Amino acid sequence: MNSAPALHLSGDLCVAGRVLCQALDLHCQARAWTALLGPSGIGKSTLARLICGLPCPAHLGGGITADDGVSLQGRTTLMAQTDQLLPWADVLANVTIGARLRGTRPDRARARQLLEQVGLAEFAHRRPATLSGGQRQRVALARTLMEDHSIVVMDEPFSALDAATRATMQDLAARMLQGRTVILITHDPLEAARMASRAFLLGPDGARPVDVPQTPTPRGVSDPATLDAQAALYRRLMAQGQTA
Amino acid sequence: MNSILHAALALIFALTLWQGIVWGTGVPHFILPGPARVGAALLDNAALLVRQAGFTLSNLAMGLTAGITLGILSALNLAMSRSARLFLRPLMVFAQAVPIFALAPIVTLWLGYGAPSKIVMVALVTYFPITSAFFDGLMRLPPGLDDLTRQMQARPWHRLLLVQLPHALPALGSGLRLAAVQAPFAVIIAEWVGASRGLGHLMLLSNGRGQVDLMFAALFVLAAISLCLFQATDRIARRWDRDR
Which chain B residue shows the shortest CA-CA distance from A100? Predict the structure, then answer.
C-alpha cells in the first residue's frame, strides 16, 4: 500500500442539471476516517461512486483531488451496504476475486491470513449463503483489504447488521483499516461518533463540519464523550429534518 | 418414492378411464384403439419402433448439440462484442418473429428427406431460445456485481468467465428447458414434411394404412422420449438454479 493521501472534494454536486448539494468544500484527512452524514437523497452514495470512479449520472463541479497530486484511479475500494459477494464462489474465492479478475495470480496465503484476522479462518470453503450478515460483511472486509488500496470508501456497510454485530464490525474495521484514508457514509450518529476523526453534515447548501471527540478511534460505545457527540449529532440531524 | 407412486396411480387411472370410454361408447378400434390394443401393438412392433425411434433420437441429439453449442457461442459473442450486438441483435429479433416450424418445407426442399433436414430443424428451433435466454443472463449483471468488476479493474474475458457466466447459468437453464420442450416438436414436424424413416414418418404411414394402434404406440414412444429429455434437462438446470 502506498502512503494514503488526503482528499479534497469541491464544487456543486449536480445530477442532470439539478444541484443536489451546493458549494462542497470537503477535506478528508489522510490516514483517518471522515464521516459524511445527511438526509437521504442529498447525494452521499453519489459522492461515494464519484470518488471510486464508478459510473453515475452526477457531476462534481470542482472534482476530487488527492493531496499527493496522483490520480485516484485504481487507488480506491468501495465497501457497499450490500456485500457484493459472488453467491456461487466460496469465501476464499470471493476474497481472491480481484486478482483473478485482473488475470494475475491471487496470493492465497495472504487471503487466508486476512480471513484469520477477520475471524473466518475455518469458513474459507463455505458459500456466502451459509453465512450470517455479519460474517458476510467480514468477507467483504477481507476482500477490501486484499485489494490493498490506500483509500477506502464505506457506503453504510454495517447498516443492515444488528446493533451488537455492528459495534463489533466497527471495531474490527477500525483495526484492519488503520493507516488508510477512509470515507464513511452513514446514517447512524453513533457510528460517526465512534469512528470518525472528522465528520460533515451534508445539506442542500453544502457540508457543515460537526463535532466529534478528538480521541483515538474506535471510541467506546458507552464512552460519555461518544454519547455526547451522538446526542449532538441527533439534534443537528433533527433540526435539519425540520427545515427540510 | 411417494411421487413415483402417485404418478403410477394417475397413469393407472388414466388407462382405466381410456379403456372405459372405449368399452362404453363402442367406438371402433380404427378410430380409438383401447390401451390393451395399443400395448399389444407396442410389443408386436417393438423392433420396428426401436429402429425408428433410434433414427429420430439420433437426429434429435445431433440437432440439440448443434443448437445448444451455436446458441451458447452466439450469446458469448454478443455479450463480448458491441458491434456484434449492434448488427446481430436486430437480425435475431427478426428471425425470432419467423415461425420456425413454417420453414420445415423449405429446409426439406433444400436438404432432402434424410437426417440433415431434421438436424437443421431441431438446431434452428433450439438455437433462438438458448441464445436469447443466455445472452440476457450474461448482460443482466446485478449493479453490485457490476460495480465490483469495475472496482477490481477486471479484464473483459475474466469478467465474462468469472462473473457473467456463472451468473447467467440459471438463465441458460431456462433456455435449455425451453429447447428441450421444442426440440421433439421440431423433429416430428420435419419428419411429417418429408422423411423415409423415424417415428413421425411411422405415425403418418400407420395412419394412412389404418393401423391406428401402431400410430398410438409410436406416439407413446415419442411422449416417453420427450419426457425423458425434459427431465434430464431439468435436472441439470436445477443444479444451476440452486447456486444463486
Answer: B158
Give B123's strand partners.
none
Spatial separation of the C-alpha atoms in residues A130 and B64, rounded to whole Å: 36
Lowest mean pLDDT of A1-15, A43-57, B72-86, name the range.
A1-15
pLDDT in tens, A87-139: 999 999 999 999 999 999 999 999 999 999 999 999 999 999 999 999 999 99
In a 3-state reduction of DSSP, which class is residue A13? strand
Preceding peptide of A218 cis, ω within 30°: yes
Phi, psi of A32 (to 5 degrees): -145, 165
The answer to whether residues B100 and B106 touch, using CB atoms and an 8 Å cutoff, is no
Model confidence band, residue A42 (pLDDT cutoffs 50, 70, 90) = confident
Please tell me which residue, A225 or A23, carries the higher pLDDT value: A225
Domains assigned to chain B: 37-242 (1.10.3720.10)
Contacts of A86 in chain B (CB under 8 A): 145, 162-163, 166
With a cut of 70, which residues of chain B have pLDDT below it? 1, 242-244
Which of B27, B6, B25, B52 lies closest to B220, judged by CA?
B52
Which distant-in-sequence residues (6+ apart) come within 8 Å of A167 by Cβ? Answer: A194, A221
Using CB atoms, pick whichever of B144, B153, B243 lies closest to residue A82: B144
Residue A37 CA, distance from chain mean position: 12
Bridge partners, residue A8, by sequence: A27, A65
Q: How far is CA B50 from the centre of its chain?
A: 20
User: Rounded to an integer, what distance in angstroms lies between the CA atom of residue B217 and that of residue B189?
Assistant: 18
Could you say which of 3.50.50.60, 3.40.50.10490, 3.40.50.300, 3.40.190.10 is the CATH number of the domain covering A7-75+150-243?
A: 3.40.50.300
The ipTM assigned to this model is 0.88
Compute the distance between CA of residue A29 and CA of residue A4 in angstroms, rounded to an integer: 9
Using alpha carbons, list the distances in angstroms from residue A92 to A95, A96, A102, B204: 5, 6, 17, 59
Who among B147, B152, B243 is closest to A101 (CB)?
B152
